[in-house]
Design a protein that fits this description.
mainly alpha; about 0% strand; 2 domains; elongated
Length: about 180
């Protein structure tokens, strides 16, 4: 009996730390322990991926920092050509979405309403259900919709409204100006 009370006390301390109110009902302890094991397993799966891909994540972070400092963009298409890419505005739309500015997020890139659920589903599928690989069908479908939306935006709003603007400071312009100046 004292083992059960110790577990209840431990769970209440853990729940207090997480700011969760726990009401003890007999039989719920096993369910809570299983839930905590599941959460621990998910975090361990995420940590395994972080360790496995750390060099790629570090390289991506360095690339983002360098290109943002020198070219004020991290998009490789805009960096090289100056033109916006099909995903142009998705990062800004996501930042608007997480700050609960839903209309601004959709105005920045309407496909955000497709990408966020897809990414959440893929993350849950990988880390919670431990299914390897990516679901190719939905991913390709959302990519095609994003490209069609890109073509529509290029025809209707380019280059008059953010994020669909031409970037003068791109590698092609820099190289052409360097050769023209000689």
């Amino acid at each position: 009996m004292s083992d059960s009370r110790d577990r209840v006390a431990g769970l209440r301390v853990f729940a207090f730390i997480l700011r969760i109110d726990v009401i003890y009902f007999p039989g719920d302890i096993e369910m809570m322990v299983d839930a905590m094991r599941s959460v621990k397993r998910i975090f361990l799966n995420i940590w395994k991926d972080v360790k496995r891909y750390r060099s790629g994540v570090l390289a991506l972070a360095v690339y983002c920092a360098v290109t943002h400092i020198f070219f004020h963009t991290i998009c490789p298409v805009a960096l090289v050509s100056g033109f916006p890419c099909p995903g142009c505005g998705l990062t800004r739309a996501f930042s608007q979405l997480i700050t609960l500015h839903f209309v601004a997020a959709v105005n920045m890139h309407a496909c955000i309403v497709l990408w966020v659920p897809l990414i959440i589903w893929m993350a849950v599928r990988r880390w919670a259900f431990e299914k390897p690989g990516f679901p190719v069908g939905p991913l390709v479908g959302v990519m095609i919709i994003t490209v069609v939306y890109y073509v529509w935006r290029m025809v209707t709003i380019y280059p008059y409204r953010l994020p669909m603007v031409f970037r003068e400071k791109n590698l092609i312009n820099i190289v052409l100006r360097a050769f023209a100046g000689r």
